[in-house]
């Protein structure tokens, strides 16, 4: 069974090949690629042809269902991207307030319990080493932070992210105070998607900083942020403790029952002995 709409189009296979290749090499390479694509398509349709007619009909229906799902998923990804843009703008004022307090641009409001006189006399300004400590408290990032990195990260004053124009990745910008390690005040890392459908990034560190550190920096700084795996581990430990307690209770109950049985046996023996002695008298 071959669906004409699903045939592999190999007409433009050679259009993206490097221009440095000779005409002969390009032709050979194009033929190899075309043959490979045809083999893959043949294997696919060959499998469908092996199915019984009634099952082929069901598979065709399933393929249509999958196609409908793919359309909805594309709509979901589009709307999610729009939501990210919307809420990123709403987050910005909060990020700006955080930046000002962390870097001592403004003092905390009246709701803060900070003693301003003590703060000024100690020479403290803002929250020293805020980003360094937030990152070190994250297990994924802590593994890659060396002693040399720590020295430089002490001067880190802010981290921002923005989506790339092609929407297939994002960039992180690290803003530094003047420091003895590099002259640039901003360092930028760009992260691209490997798979647009599955949204897999080529570097997990970048996604960790974007999704966890930037959005929950205060919780990571204070150590209040608990990774999901640790929460699950805590739940497992609680279940194990409950099971151990139940086993101990069962063990105690069994011992109590055994002691009761032994006492009853001893009492029965004592009663028989008394009866025997009474008979002899």
Automatic annotation (TrEMBL):
- Which InterPro entries would you find in this protein's record? NAP-like_sf, NAP_family
The answer to whether the entry has keyword Ribosomal protein is: no
Name the keywords, alphabetized.
Chaperone
Fetch the Gene3D superfamilies from UniProt: 1.20.5.1500, Nucleosome assembly protein
GO:BP terms for this protein? double-strand break repair via homologous recombination; nucleosome assembly
Q: Can you supply one Gene Ontology CC term for this chain's record?
A: nucleus
Domain of life where this protein originates = Eukaryota
Q: Please give the start and end residues of each transmembrane region.
A: none
UniProt region (Disordered), positions on chain? 223-281
Here the segments flagged for biased composition (Acidic residues) are 227-265
GO molecular-function terms, A-Z: histone binding
The record's Pfam families line, in alphabetical order, gives: NAP
**Similarity comment: family membership:** Belongs to the nucleosome assembly protein (NAP) family.
Q: What's this protein's name?
A: Nucleosome assembly protein
Specify the species.
Anisodus tanguticus
